[in-house]
Amino acid sequence: MLNLFKPKALDRAQKRFWDDNGYLILPGFFDAETVAAVNAEVANVVTDRTAYPKVTADIIAGDLAGRRMKIADVPDRAFSGPIKINDLFMDSEVVTACTLSDRITRVLKELLDGDPLICNSLNFIYGSGQPAHYDSWFMPPIAKDRMAVVSICLDQYTDENGPLFVYPGSHKIAPYVFPHGGIAALGSDLGPANAYVADTTREIEPVYFYGRPGDVLIWHSQLLHGGAAIKDPTRTRRSLVTHYWRARDVPQDQRVKMTAGGYILKRDHHV
Ligand SMILES: O=C(O)CCC(=O)C(=O)O
């Protein structure tokens, strides 16, 4: 007889951990071949960047810090420091295959209570060095709390290369409300929001994630997190960070179904 029963992607303890802490670590989730394929793809994008005319990059450090540029225009020197390559899920089958693999899709479906949809992806070559923040400040979910973010380790994370850190349970803190009345910053001054963060999280010890290649850390849209300072600037910390909304929260004409349960947002590259 055909067995149509599909086991749950997450067990009860994992679901409970997610609910309590707002994040989940899945060790060894992707195999070495997948990690090597993504790393090779990103290396190729960097080498052959004129072949990706729409792809943009945000430069995080150095003389071009704060600039968003077409990757084709980014000078070589900017790739030897923190940089964020935006939205390769739109241009790379390797990235899409990994970020909408059947296994990760099933995990996200359970966390989001519905099929996941990629709204953005970021490839880091070095640590981000980003101070603690809530992603909802910059990319709020359409439906409250229905966004999850997956960081795939593509290098060993250590104290030297500025590991990812999270504040367990911070997703339960009432979000900061900006003067316009919403939880997205929309260009508002972040000063008061950061003061609110300092005030509301002083009791929480951050957890540093020393992931290995292939490990995954998933965080809730409302979880405080960031990238620690980089002690050794020569050490890469490659990662693929993907933000997922819930597909059914997005109008049908703005989403594309890519796999049995995985979608991408129909949109243009950032400019
Ligand atoms: O991996 C990191 O350093 C953090 C990345 C991050 O904070 C983000 O993409 O929102």
UniProtKB/TrEMBL annotation:
Pfam families: PhyH
UniProt cross-references to Gene3D superfamilies, sorted A to Z: q2cbj1_9rhob like domain (2.60.120.620)
TM region positions: none
Cofactors required: Fe(2+)
Lineage: superkingdom: Bacteria
PANTHER family membership: ECTOINE DIOXYGENASE, PHYTANOYL-COA DIOXYGENASE DOMAIN CONTAINING 1
Name of this protein: Phytanoyl-CoA dioxygenase
